[in-house]
Amino acid sequence: MEKFLNREVIYEGKILRLDLDQVECANGNLAYREIVRHNGGAAILCITKENKVLLIKQFRYAYNEVLYEIPAGKLEQKEDSLSAASREFEEETGLRALDMSYLTTIYPTCGYSNEKIYLYLVTKYVKSQQHLDEDEFVEPIWMDLSEVLEMVQNGAIKDAKTICAIQTYLIQKNKIQL
Q1: Which of 33, 50, 111, 157 has the highest local Cβ count within 10 Å?
Q2: Contact, 119 vs 104, CB < 8 A?
Q3: For residue 29, what are the contacts with CB-CB under 8 A and spacing of at least 6?
Q4: Among the options 134, 136, 139, 150, which is catalytic?
Q5: Which SS3 state, helix, strand or coil, does residue 88 take?
């Protein structure tokens, strides 16, 4: 364990804060930890009984490329993950979930961030209305699970939350014993 000593807020923005923490290490030495503080996010794997998976095709500025991801979004201050997942699913896809079950929680960047992403599964939904932010441009795409798995295998799907959600779903569905 490390003992917290001091914190300096370096940057505070709309979706994250960067802290520089001074800590005392287990051996007594002092060190600094740069930590990105984030409210967290919720992501939703939507899969039909016909094994169709709903992905979002979206340009991601940080990587300067178009990525394929499951629908997701950030938690608002003090918002619970299930509410965020329901809200984001409808906003991005134009579908309202009739069932939503918890899959798991992942720590996508544990070396420098406290972000948690809560993964959910949807298998039943009804048509609703898409409500995108004015700077959000996403394209919902239905794909066969076999095609999605091939895209994971060949590196066409690079998004960690998407890969984790699909793998967790398959492990739970097939009750794979490790």
Answers
A1: 157
A2: yes
A3: none
A4: 134
A5: helix
Residue 163 identity (one-letter amino acid) = I
Residue among 81, 97, 80, 94 nearest 45 (CA): 97
88 is catalytic: no
Return the bridge partners of 17, or none.
Answer: 12, 37
CA dist 147 to 10, 39, 43, 68, 87, Å? 43, 32, 20, 12, 27
Q: Is 48 left (phi over 0), alpha (psi -120 to 50) or beta?
A: beta
Cα–Cα distance, 16 to 36 (Å, whole number):
7
Contact call for residues 75 and 84 (beta carbons, < 8 A):
yes
pLDDT string in tens for the chain (178-residue length): 999 999 999 999 999 999 999 999 999 999 999 999 999 999 999 999 999 999 999 999 999 999 999 999 999 988 999 999 999 999 999 999 999 999 999 999 999 999 999 999 999 999 998 888 788 889 999 999 999 999 999 999 999 999 999 999 999 988 755 5
Name residue 35's beta-bridge partners. Answer: 19
Q: Which pairing describes strands 72-74 and 3-12: parallel, antiparallel, or unpaired?
A: unpaired
The structure's pTM equals 0.92
